[in-house]
């Protein structure tokens, strides 16, 4: 979200302010000496940085801390509970959601609305979203918090470094610039929901979170995001992660993308419902999960076939990228019990032992993209705190 | 190759020394003012950095340069032709090669030997390689150059951040530590040949070189390397890029890896020779290229089938990674005329237009890995020059 800092005295100070914020965020409360020990700067240098961050409303002193060491006791530093908050928003196919997350990662306010957005024009949907953002922003301000930015998760392709949804097939949107409809006086960023779900996994999903992983999620289509050394791989145009269009059987059924036998033709919601002989009126994943839990053999067989196709596509992905982990998120996390056995079987037979990743199910589930959006703003504050000082 | 530099005064100076070296390497000869303009530091700061680099034998002054601007003319700075050199080495299935590349990227010495290494134990092969390295090193020293490090390209998996060849199936090697056999008193690094071929592409392959690409090469097996934002994606264990084991037809022929229908079963040298009804006594690629050039229909058909399989595997790769370019290198660059039509057809029908990458053939061909190895040492010098000052 931030531009790289220049290699000057000022740039170095900004980087060091960020190191202090990250040290306190990751290991706080910490004394000044504790921060100095962690980031490898002198106590005097750290004190000057800490004073600036306290003045900027980003750090607070919790009061004197009794230290066991000789010398005057240090006061413990913590991130401010009344400083900046990140506003996360999510446009789903059947819902809208907004939340405010503080520097501690705590959700301080939220609002949501159910509605079927398939084929609805963007304008009224964005108007409703703007109203939810207004509510959450006001609730945050009432608690003395300052919105530092808004990030929106959308189920579609977003051109890199823009606010434009190029294509969201399940909404029926094309070339919608969210910057036109969500003017708030704070920075607005827009990203694909699979990307933000993966970032949530990286930032708050595990302890310790893997730094190299493939995160697979599904709502109606199948999306994935690749994280390498703790950074999201976005692709040249911002369209990386289209796992749903990896060929599974090159002469398989025709896909809307123009290809044949894409993963989505075997493991997408529509394909699984069809294989299970079902028509969903509400959310397809709810129906599939309920029937599978009830022991419906046809549904379980359909999910097993989908799992095998996922395993084949992921085997190719693993051979290419050698990730530490594959994480099933979003709707897939609810269907995991019936997808995993066949998925794991294909993945195991098609990848070499030394490079085989762990296979896990996200703890965040369908909350991932919304939390990832809010946390992306919080991370921007930690990464360059001086830009967000009061 | 270098550890990240700390965020201190000394770390900042080392980073700025590197900025100066890269500015002169990319745009030299340059005056001090020219360098200052490019890297955004003051003329005084740059002069102090330049003086240190001249003292270290890394930069030279070419003499006074007539500038059009008012003020005293600046002297033009250039990289030293008598400074450090990178020693690159390559262990091929049927050859050994070593070269020395100076800071300008010029090959200053080279040596090579042909031999069939299939099934030969590592020890005598490495002994021959050590002798070639000695010859090239002595030739470089005779020209006043200083070897700054040795990098070795191997046709196999190398565990990340080690000197160990974990598995090189076409040599028959397992768990060979090259550090035991190549002791030279300078830093030794070992890497997979596909990785070094891709890095060569990044550093010297094009003008401007793409920063996000997939580089596909072949010797006996099929290897690939993924470069993202100018950095090689190595994978958690160092095994990324195993394109040869991406499933093309999940129920296809059994592969030595334990899977079925892997790309190597359709586009690997052995599979193509078999489909063409040929048995190679020498290099398979030479035979295939000669027959295809002669218009042999069976060989051309076999190469077309291989190209289609490559296109299917690469379509999945492109959907996942959204690279700017796909580059065919190594032996594939020689076979490109007969692979490309079917490859491009599959890639086009299976990828969406806005994310479709350019498809090119490497100019470096089979020289890529050797040059990449030598240049990896040169880049280490540019990235942290103070560690390599005389």
Automatic annotation (TrEMBL), chains A, B:
Top-level taxon of the source organism: Bacteria
Range of residues in the leader sequence: none
Matches recorded under Pfam families: ROK
Gene3D superfamilies: 3.30.420.40, Winged helix-like DNA-binding domain superfamily/Winged helix DNA-binding domain (1.10.10.10)
Family the entry assigns: Belongs to the ROK (NagC/XylR) family.
Name of the protein this chain belongs to: ROK family transcriptional regulator
